[in-house]
Amino acid sequence: MIVKRIIPCLDVKEGKVVKGTNFVGLRELGDPVEMASAYSKAGADEIVFLDISATNEGRQTMVDIVRATAREVFVPFTVGGGVRTIDDVTRLLQAGADKVGMNSAAVVNPSLITEASARFGAQCIVVAIDAKRFGDKWHVMTHGGSKDTGLDAIEWAKTAEKNGAGEILLTSVDTDGVKDGFDTELTSAVVEAVRIPVIASGGCGKPEHFSDIFKATDVSAGLAASIFHENTFTVGEVKRICQQEGVDIREA
Question: Where along the chain is the active site annotated (predicted)?
Fold first, then answer.
């Protein structure tokens, strides 16, 4: 059995880690380099860094912060936000990222997934899907969750895999920051539709939410921000509770 991963996420805007609810109402929480370093030392399995305003502002990801963060973390490090071209992917990998996430640009130009995967390997390419429920379906949202593409999120996940994505970072816009638990229905639907690893994101408010999603679906990892950034729970506490619930997980 493949062990489950616990992943802290750093949403960064204007050089600071921020967090909101349903992708709005952002508040500053700290320095991304310092926080990433602390999580790496605390036993996080991976770190995800998302420059959440890069796409809306039409600029590249803040490479200097990526480079500084990469020097401080000793676990796999994924970076996304503002990735529009193969040169952007190259730049981030050269700055020290282990994986590069793409969202809005991949929707507009799916061949970017294929080109990046062919050049660097599928293991380096993460397609981030921000999904919001509309009736009995979920639509893909882009531009920081502000633009409804009308695309069916489940079908887009299949397309991303077919085009060469090595992993999917799935965020529920509906549950993001609400802290009532991951979106089990959405997560299960995407996990069952693809064969590549899926990271569940959006809604975690306590350690049991990790174990709940791991037991309810075959998701590969759980990602959270608020419960770690606000010092509500440590990575170690989350892992201990998951182990007590029978989840196969790495020691902190």
Answer: 11, 130
